[in-house]
Specification:
Blueprint: H1 15-33, H2 39-46, H3 53-58, H4 62-78, H5 80-100, H6 104-113, H7 115-132, H8 135-145, H9 148-161, H10 171-186, H11 213-244, H12 248-259, H13 262-274, H14 279-298, H15 304-327, H16 329-332, H17 339-367, H18 370-387
Length: 395
């Protein structure tokens, strides 16, 4: 590991430094989910229809779906540290724009631009973690990174769920702006890394990540997990509300709290991998568990207590599965100083799937087709296991 700057407040590669980088992923992930509790408010105040709700969720993924892999390779050249500083400023700008949006068209346009956060953070943050961490810590660091999504999803649901259905329904966006402002003010704490590709040296091509078997297969396996995990997130607060006759805002807040169980699931998987457990074998058991747990998750007629138990088990398993995928990233990347390119590829494919996923799950929700939910989980789980790379950078 190459480091510089003994005067830095956070030692590069330390868990404190890794944890600080991790916050950029958490706040970015909150951007994706915070719209879910206020979809009805967007309909009431800006005229969105229920058929547009899935699109409103997906719009943030348009730019990442088009640019993330190219941007990741560009970040390897230009610097992950500077990119994350821009992410914090962009987060402030887009949340401020939401507060003054006067039409559905403006709101949707801002939602598209919000995707710039994902382009920057999801490539630069793991890239900076891998580049600044010692080799023996990279796998555990990526297991920690895998928890950015559940924690960010929970944060986004909590931020907006607190204000959903009230006159201050955009209050969560105001709080999100303030959190990004904190990151912007503290961004000098981000580590500097020596050894990144420089002018005159050999550089990876902007599309090289697409030609590497290991990162490509890992990205596709991660995309299959998104179909399962994010798909359930987009419908479950409403599904739970319908099944148990509770307000969707209350269901969103409850769901956000249960989502936090993904974090101990991820950390437990990271610990098992650090002790020598084979990642392919562990992933296989977790995917099988996802299929089995989806039955009590979605079957109608179940009481609140057993359904909450199924939700808790679901979150633990989902968190562990994502950790297994992320922990494999260092072993499929040939050069840890060019990790942003591979992370960008993973982000781009994930964004493509994230865009499509609500458009698939939302119609099933409105149709009440819970068997389709279970079938989709089974198909995606099988795909994830088959796609997971068995070897290193070559795949």
């Amino acid at each position: 590991m190459a480091q510089e700057g003994q005067n830095q407040l956070l030692v590069p590669g330390s868990w404190l430094s890794i944890g600080y980088i991790y916050l950029y992923g958490v706040l970015t992930s909150a951007s994706l989910s915070k719209i879910i509790p206020v979809l009805a408010d967007v309909g009431e105040h800006l005229g969105a229809t229920s058929t547009q709700y899935g699109l409103l969720i997906s719009l943030m993924t348009v730019i990442p779906a088009l640019l993330a892999a190219v941007a990741g390779s560009a970040i390897d050249r230009l610097g992950a540290r500077r990119t994350l500083q821009l992410v914090a400023l962009t987060g402030m700008a887009v949340n401020g724009a939401y507060l003054v949006a006067q039409s559905l068209g403006a709101f949707m346009s801002i939602r598209v631009l919000e995707g710039l956060l994902a382009v920057g953070a999801y490539a630069a943050a793991p890239g900076l973690m891998m580049a600044s961490s010692p080799p023996e810590r990279r796998g555990r660091a990526m297991a920690l990174w895998s928890t950015y999504s559940p924690l960010g999803t929970s944060l986004g649901l909590l931020l907006s769920g607190t204000f959903a259905g009230t006159a201050s329904w955009l209050g969560g966006y105001r709080l999100h702006l303030m959190l990004f402002a904190v990151l912007a003010l503290t961004s000098p704490l981000l580590p500097h890394v020596q050894g990144a590709p420089r002018a005159g040296g050999k550089r990876a091509g902007l599309l090289d990540a697409w030609t590497q078997g290991g990162p490509l297969r890992l990205s596709l396996a991660f995309a299959a997990l998104i179909v399962i995990g994010f798909g359930a997130t987009t419908v479950y607060p409403q599904w739970f509300a319908l099944q148990h006759q509770v307000p969707v805002g209350d269901a969103s807040k409850m769901f956000s709290l249960v989502t936090l169980l993904m974090i101990p699931g991820s950390l437990a998987a990271g610990a098992l991998l650090a002790r020598g457990r084979r990642d392919l074998q562990l992933l296989g058991w977790l995917l099988l568990a996802s299929v089995l747990i989806s039955l009590p998750m979605f079957a109608p007629g179940l009481g609140k207590v057993p359904r909450l138990g199924a939700m808790a088990a679901w979150m633990l398993v989902q968190g562990a599965g994502i950790a297994v995928i992320m922990a494999a990233l260092p072993r499929v990347v040939a050069n840890p100083l060019q990790g942003a390119g591979a992370a960008g590829l993973l982000s781009q494919i994930a964004a493509l799937i994230t865009f499509v996923t609500p458009l698939v799950w939302q119609p099933m929700l409105h149709a009440g087709a819970w068997q389709a939910f279970v079938a989709l989980v089974a198909v995606a789980a099988t795909a994830a296991w088959l796609l997971f790379p068995r070897r290193g950078p070559a795949g």
